[in-house]
Amino acid sequence: MNQPENVLVTGGAGFVGSHAAAFYDKKGSSVTALDNMSRIDTLDTADGSRDTSAYNWEYLKEHHPSVDLIKADVRDQDTLEEIVEGHDAIVHTAGQVAVTASIQDPRTDFEINALGTFNVLEAARKVEADPAVVIASTNKVYGDNVNKIPVREENSRYWYDNPNYEDGIPESLSIDDCEHTPYGVSKLAADLYVQDYANRNEVDAAAFRMSCIYGPRQFGNEDQGWVAHFALSTLRDEPITIFGDGKQVRDVLYVEDLIRAYDAFLSDPEGKSAIYNMGGGANNTTSLVEFLDLLEEKTGKRTDISFDEWREGDQKVYVSDIDRAREELNWEPTVDFETGIENFLNWYQDR
Ligand SMILES: NC(=O)c1ccc[n+]([C@@H]2O[C@H](COP(=O)([O-])OP(=O)(O)OC[C@H]3O[C@@H](n4cnc5c(N)ncnc54)[C@H](O)[C@@H]3O)[C@@H](O)[C@H]2O)c1
Fold first, then answer.
1. What confidence tens digit (pLDDT) does each residue in 63-103 have?
2. Residue 107: how many CB atoms within 10 A of its CB?
3. 210 ligand 1 Cβ < 6 A
4. Contact 183, 140 (CB under 8 A)
5. The one catalytic residue among 24, 55, 160, 183
């Protein structure tokens, strides 16, 4: 195992990226965080008190002053190549993150997610330092194939009604011949490039097909980051709209557990797979309505809820089968949902 010495984090002002930057800074690596600071524009609720990219950027400045912060865009290949030079590891989290925005503006979504990732891989292939790369992919690459697995309705949740999926969705589930969304497709294109570059030994790279990641310093809204959105809305006494019946189930993974999985790959990429399903797994799941109950238990509050139509591309149940990550990365989620949510609530109250 080799600890990466020089780590580049794209999307370093984002939720996942800023945690990755903080993690490697704490471990003693030299860290560069790159971001175009666009996230704030995509949040229609953004205002001075709710800045997202800016918040995490300022957080890094204050708590991790040795992290080198660079404003740049992953769509700009030449600049990216210059920045990548000298790094032996890249955590690529920069992305257009919302399904809704991808439907409104699929070109921008494609350019950031597909072309941006391609640029990162090309830069990694060309530079002398030969960096290992992890890419923040998504469970949305499986598209509607997930919804072809029968589910049964229980009291407060849906669950797979097929014993083959009791442990969740494995990497072998088909990714095509089904409906997707532009976001799912742009991420899938990126994910396939990762596999191609990895399998042809051009770059030591892996796509982590992430389910629901949550934790402190996450600013969710209706379009993305529902755990943070529900928690923040509850704390702020703001109403929540649930699309569908709220019995949708997700596996939830605390962000620091995710970063440990990235690190397990980056520290020792030799012989590893090019894709990993990544989430809390079957032992860490919640439905939306179950989460509202947990929030009430922790905060003593329940905000106003209304229901609307199901959204395009939504999955009734998505749970990651994390066996491959367990075995190959010698990794396991360590933070249970209740503890993780307490950490989130404490962070918000302390800020
Ligand atoms: N959070 C989750 O639950 C989750 C789940 C699955 C996949 N993902 C993926 O993980 C990654 C990180 O997600 P997050 O939750 O931290 O989102 P985030 O919005 O907090 O972070 C993304 C960051 O990328 C930056 N960015 C966007 N376009 C850019 C560009 N062209 N050049 C440079 N920077 C750019 C944004 O400004 C933002 O700071 C994304 O790629 C997302 O698709 C996240």
1. 999 999 999 999 999 999 999 999 999 999 999 998 889 99
2. 10
3. yes
4. yes
5. 183
Helix then strand count (H, E) for the chain reads 13, 15
Query: Among 177, 214, 211, which Cα is nearest to 317's?
Result: 211
Domain 6-350 has CATH 3.40.50.720: yes
What does residue 251 show for φ and ψ, rounded to 5 degrees? -90, 145
**209-231 pLDDT tens trace:** 999 999 999 988 888 899 999 99
- Tell me how far the alpha carbon of residue 113 lies from the centroid of ligand 1, in angstroms: 9
CA distance 110 to 27: 34
Q: Is the CB of 186 within 6 Å of ligand 1?
A: no
Weakest mean pLDDT among 21-30, 73-82, 192-201, 307-316: 307-316
Q: Which two tokens stand for residue 300?
A: 């003593």
Is 183 an annotated catalytic residue? yes
* Two tokens, residue 80: 């990216």
